Amino acid sequence: MSIIEKEIVTKDLITKSNLPASDYVINPYVGCPHACKYCYARFMKRFTGHTEEWGNFIDIKRCDKTISVKKLYQKSVFISSVTDCYNPFEAKYQVTRNVLKQLKKADCLITISTKSDLILRDGMKLFLG
Ligand code: SF4
What we know:
Layout: E1 4-9, E2 14-16, E3 24-26, E4 29-30, H1 44-48, E5 57-62, E6 76-79, H2 90-93, H3 95-103, E7 109-112, H4 119-122, H5 125-128
Parallel strand pairs: 1-5, 3-6, 6-7
Antiparallel strand pairs: 2-3, 4-5
This protein binds iron/sulfur cluster.
């Protein structure tokens, strides 16, 4: 089955986190094509109006607002809690890559969660290069 992809506009890519280990969270996408059986993020369907099966849709977030790096000073940022920020659509849309480019200027701790080796495309070059 093909995955339904849609670009959506969001006011802000970064939100305050309720997770104990991070101050802020960024989810560049809604949905996740990996569709892991054990996925805890399926609840996102309720909040986003999706009726498709989890894994059959992906919303690509578009945002004009630049991430405020000032407020991230000495804070922690988790990417991403309810999607895989390096899901296969990232190869085309590069939302995560653009987020990391913005965060490069921030003095903050960034944690990235992914099961994809697409992360190697961006790798440590963004931070160490
Ligand atoms: S990679 Fe993570 S967000 Fe994506 S389906 Fe699997 S558990 Fe859910």
